[in-house]
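Narrative of activities, Objective 1.

The group set out to show that a structural description can be obtained from nothing but a protein's sequence at a throughput compatible with the screening campaign. Below is one input-output pair from the validation batch, recorded exactly as produced.
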Amino acid sequence: MLGDKIAEETGKITGVRVLPGEGGRYVKIEISFQAAGKLLGVNASDTGTYVAYERLPGVLYGEGQGIIATESGEGIIWHGFGVGRMVGPGMAAQWRACVTYQTSSQKLARLNTVLGVLEHQTDEQGNVTTKAWEWK
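Output recorded for this entry:
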């Protein structure tokens, strides 16, 4: 069951690389982004990278990681994976994913026991929007 919204952010893709896939049959795309918003009500910035694989035409699988920094300097590491689909030209895609967090912050320690589920969207201009909820 979905619980409270734990994060919401917007940002921009900062880099894209097309890499060889496994066995020469697939390609993978490495996408880096920067975003800012709120995590558990705290202002934060997120820098992350994920690798997307096209499993079937228009169907994507991805894995990523990144670091979130709060405005007071606390750090949170995240790891996630999910599935997506292309929805338009360029980098336009919609993702549904799971994410876990690690932090030594006492204020944000709740994140260490949370599994987040998220919606991540990119448009053809490279804008990103992410919303995450706690899975209870």
